[in-house]
Amino acid sequence: MRLSRTTAAAPVRIVHLGLGNFFRAHQAWYTAHAPDAQDWGIAAFTGRSAKLADTLSAQDGVYTLITREAKDEFEVVSSISRAHGAGKHDAWLRYLASPDTRVVTLTVTEAGYTRDRDGGLDTTDPAVAADLTALRRGAPVRTAVARLVAGLAARRDAGAGPIAVVPCDNLPGNGEVLARLTAECADLVAPGCAEVASFVTTMVDRITPATTGADLATAEAATGYRDEAPVVTEPFSEWVLSGEFPGGRPQWSATFTDDVMPYERRKLWLLNGAHSLLAYTAALRGHRTVGEAVADEVCRSWLAEWWQEAVPHLDLPAADLDAYCRALLTRFANPGVRHQLAQIAMDGSQKLPARILPVLREERDAGRLPRGAVRLLAGWVCHLTGAGVPVSDPGAAGVRDERDALALLDLAGDEELRAAVAAEANRLRG
Ligand code: CS2
């Protein structure tokens, strides 16, 4: 029997860009669990391929969330009322121009923000340049910022009222980042349209690996129906938000605060930084998943070293941070979540600045050479130069050695750091 919807779909009031596993384990799940879920349906658009939208549409938007630890728990999540492929530009514009829509959420990955080295809109990126031309002609666009600007312009022209824009990617100050990019894009093609948007900054967390064929079989055996797109995730989840929702929002069971930054830095440095460290270094010891890596005491000692460097730069009580790191080790060791190092290794040039640079800079300013950060960078250099998991990072094309790699992070001038990274990379290569 095929999975299908058993309750009426909620009216669409949220539009999402970046329909994928993380969104389905996180924001869609929070929305499904809100006490007013029946009022807040989601229209979710994929970022590129329409495949997942087609698969979900064939089962009325619903899917199975498999929450894994020692055993599996299965639940059907039904907050996605409509799923659309990325190419459905007119549908996107219609939702954005509707007064019923109150919130736009985004999960487009770090690279999806198409920023230049200064954090502004990268107008030299061919996809961005093509979209700017298309926006001037009112033609369909593909990049996230251009899609948002097209939608906001349609909303402003329709007089549909203000809307909250909620980026949910691992970037510090993601609300401010997206506000800047949107304003820069709007200035070029539709001045003033971003005024209808209230940008919300968020920290999001839930470890969500790619789904495997075995997961489909497990879900079918346990539930008795066939789901072509289940999602596996861990029990832990966290969502911290700061900003205004002028048109309302679901009663999400999340943390609302004035300042997301302390949570964001804690998560980006301690969790994501640790992930990247393992993705590049543990792979050199033959491991393929985060779970395998943390079963190796050498890798655990590398994590401890990085955490010891990062923790003193965080503005949260030391005991809480200690507990946070211990909990991370348990989360990383979760036997049910087979999180591939290759998945985490992708797009390092976009991910590493948020994950290690603030700590590294402060350590260097204090005259120290932090070994954990050096090891992470050395692992990344090994990865980019052919050791470890395969490279998938358009932003790091053409890197030949540690000089090229460090230049991507604006660290090229630090000769002492370069030498340390080169020496460590040699050690890691064995
Ligand atoms: C990971 C994140 O792929 C990656 O880069 O570090 O996706 C991580 O699993 C999530 O941020 C956890 O919330």
Automatic annotation (TrEMBL):
Catalysed reaction, written as an equation: D-mannitol 1-phosphate + NAD(+) = beta-D-fructose 6-phosphate + NADH + H(+)
Keyword Oxidoreductase: yes
Keywords in alphabetical order: Oxidoreductase
Stretches assigned to the Mannitol dehydrogenase C-terminal domain: 259-401
Entries under Pfam families matching the protein: Mannitol_dh (PF01232), Mannitol_dh_C (PF08125)
Annotated InterPro entries: 6-PGluconate_DH-like_C_sf (IPR008927), 6PGD_dom2 (IPR013328), Mannitol_DH (IPR000669), Mannitol_DH/Oxidoreductase (IPR050988), Mannitol_DH_C (IPR013118), Mannitol_DH_N (IPR013131), NAD(P)-bd_dom_sf (IPR036291)
Top-rank taxon: Bacteria
Record-annotated Mannitol dehydrogenase N-terminal domain positions: 13-253
PANTHER family: MANNITOL DEHYDROGENASE 2-RELATED (PTHR43362:SF1), MANNITOL DEHYDROGENASE DSF1-RELATED (PTHR43362)
Name listed for the protein in its UniProt record: Mannitol dehydrogenase family protein
Lineage: Bacteria, Bacillati, Actinomycetota, Actinomycetes, Pseudonocardiales
